[in-house]
C-alpha cells in the first residue's frame, strides 16, 4: 500500500486506532512523510515544467500546435505546483502547531510533577515549627555574636585593673 493511500485510508497502527486517535509523535511523523512526498512531487513538476518549456521553444514557430500543447501542459503543471505550495504551507502550519501543543503538554505535565514534589517536601513542615526554629536560630546567632564580641574585645582587660 502506498504512503498516500495509507494516509488517506487511515492505514495506521491498531494501537493508535484503539486509543481514539494517533499520538502526537505518530501525527508528526505522518505530517513529515506527507511534506516529503509533496516536496518530491514539487521537484518532479518543476522538471516537467522545464521540459515543456523546452519543447515549446523547440517547436516555436515551426509547429505552433505542438508548442501550444506544451505550453498548456506547462500551465497545468504550474497550477498543480501552486496547489502543492498551498498544501505544503498548510501542512507546515499544522505540524508547527502540533509540535507547539506537544511541547506545551510536556511542560504542563512536568510542572505538575514539580508541584507534587513540592507538596511532598512541604507536607512535613509546619509554619509554627519553622517560626520557632527561626527564633532559635536568631537567638543562637545573638549568643554567638556576644561571645565573639567578648573574645575580640581584649582592650577592656587593661582598663579594669588599676596599677
Automatic annotation (TrEMBL):
One GO cellular component from the entry?
late endosome membrane
For the region Disordered, what residue ranges are annotated?
Answer: 1-25
Q: Compositionally biased, Gly residues: which spans?
A: 9-21
One BP term from GO: vesicle budding from membrane
Say if the entry is tagged with keyword Cell cycle.
no
Keyword flag Membrane? yes
Question: Which Gene3D superfamilies did the record assign?
Answer: ESAT-6-like
Q: Which family does it belong to?
A: Belongs to the SNF7 family.
According to UniProt, the name of this protein is: CHM4C protein
Which organism is the protein's source? Answer: Menura novaehollandiae (superb lyrebird)
